[in-house]
Specification:
It contains two helices and 15 strands. Helices cover 5% and strands 48% of the residues. A hairpin with a 5-residue loop joins β1 (17-19) and β2. It is mainly β. The protein has helices spanning 56-62, 126-129, and strands spanning 17-19, 25-29, 35-38, 42-53, 73-84, 90-103, 108-112, 116-122, 133-148, 153-156, 164-166, 171-174, 179-186, 198-205, 209-212. Strands 1, 2, 3, 4, 5, 6, 7, 8, 9, 10, 12 and 15 form a twelve-stranded antiparallel sheet that branches. Strands 11-14-13 form a three-stranded antiparallel sheet, with no helix packed on it. It comes from Streptomyces sanglieri. It holds the Pfam family AIM24. This is AIM24 family protein.
């Protein structure tokens, strides 16, 4: 039986964060290298690792998260190997090098505790979304893991002058230096069934990337307020 299951055994540690398969994250934990992770995402661990749900630093930042898009965060510390997952979603590991990333809160899985992060309003969308759209902006040098409902596509917005349009419910993350604005369009097909007759997209321009998942989040992140 061991031979039959050998292909699923843990692989040697090569980095702080790496994929174990497509839908699981493996984190090499060490004393002094704390991790923030989505509460409830731990599926297994080896060694001695402690968990602190909703620590004070997180409560202070998350108090800005007034739209209900946020995810509860726990602090992980200790030594060993930690395995995280989010209901079978694909896991994408990113190593920031003095860089930053804006992530939809529902797609945040884990990030290094020493990184600078906060909840920020997305500029340029207030007239479409009432109080606006809120994302988690993570910056610095370190590791970040995000989730995607299916294999995502990463669009390089710097390849041309045309804007990149994304359904906000399929948006995972983007480079914060990109310019963002809302766009409203009319689709005749949306008059059929439960459609409202209008469709809304987020338009990105400038130098950077946009990460899009092949599934629409059911939170309806972008609405027009009367």
């Amino acid at each position: 039986m061991n031979q039959q299951l050998a292909g699923y055994a843990p692989t040697p540690v090569t980095a702080r964060m790496e994929n174990h398969g497509r839908t699981m994250l493996k984190v090499a934990m060490a004393t002094g290298q704390d991790l923030y992770a989505r509460t409830g995402s731990m599926v297994a661990y080896e060694g001695f690792i402690q968990y602190e749900p909703n620590p004070p630093a997180v409560r202070q930042i998350a108090s800005q998260w007034i739209t209900g898009e946020g995810a509860p965060i726990m602090k992980c510390s200790g030594d060993g190997l930690l395995y995280l997952a989010d209901y079978g979603a694909d896991v994408v590991v990113i190593n920031l090098n003095n860089d930053s990333l804006s992530v939809n809160g529902t797609n945040v899985l884990a990030f290094d505790g020493h990184l600078t992060w906060g909840v920020e309003r997305v500029k340029g969308l207030a007239k479409f979304a009432g109080q606006g759209l809120w994302n988690v902006c993570i910056s610095g040098t370190g590791w970040v893991a995000i989730t995607s409902r299916g294999t995502p596509i990463v669009v390089d917005c710097g390849r041309g002058e045309d804007e990149t349009y994304v359904d906000p419910d399929a948006l995972v993350a983007w480079s914060p230096n990109l310019k963002v604005k809302g766009k409203r369009s009319f689709k005749a097909s949306s008059l059929i069934g439960r459609g409202s007759g209008e469709a809304y997209q987020m338009a990105f321009s400038g130098q950077g990337i946009v990460v899009v998942q092949p599934s629409e989040d059911s939170t309806d992140r972008l609405r027009v307020r009367n």
